[in-house]
Sequence to fold (92 residues):
Amino acid sequence: METKHTPGPWAVYKSRGNSRLRVMSDAVPYDVATMNHAGGEEAEAANAARVAAAPELLDALRYMVENAEAAGWSGLMLDDARAAIAKAEGRA
Fold:
């Protein structure tokens, strides 16, 4: 499936002039996300890391589901994975 989000990989950078964290793609010169200090610096860094990992996590989840379905697997784990993919793709 063609992705509609900003291409990955995404990485976390510290803004110049202040301490905000930014998540950016190497493919485009724009922020994917800017973190604030809600919850403190540790929470900000953890949130930025999760956002930056999103494209790779989505690709890995799609790969897992595709291969599990090809192997004939079924069950709640695959249902949860499909639901997470749908949410990430804006279909849920």
Residues 41-70 form the longest helix (30 residues). The CA atoms of residues 68 and 74 lie 8 Å apart. Helices lie at 41-70, 76-88.
